[in-house]
Amino acid sequence: MHSLPYWRLSGFYFFHFAVLGAFVPYWSLYLQSLSFSALQIGILMSLLLVTRIFAPTAWGWL
To answer: Contact at 8 Å (CB) between 28 and 41?
Structure first.
């Protein structure tokens, strides 16, 4: 009876990391095909990691 939130959270994490796993490896190649420089690609790729540092803190302040 109480397992519904567990499955919702498990499903969310599964799809979240599945999308990231499918998206991130090819995103830099896509940006390279759009003539982004290596520095620009590196900055954009690092934004994913930087948001993982600051987003939980910002979410906690809400």
So the answer is: yes
Angstrom distance (rounded) from CA 60 to CA 56: 6
- The domain containing residue 44 runs over which residues? 3-61
Report how far apart, in Å, the C-alpha atoms of 36 and of each of 20, 26, 43 are: 21, 14, 11
Number of domains, the chain: 1
pLDDT tens digits for the chain (62 residues)?
567 788 888 998 999 899 989 999 999 999 999 999 999 999 999 998 899 899 888 888 87
Model pLDDT, residue 1: 54
Show the 3-state SS of 39-56: HHHHHHHHHHHHHHHHHH
Return d(Cα 31, Cα 51) in angstroms, integer.
19
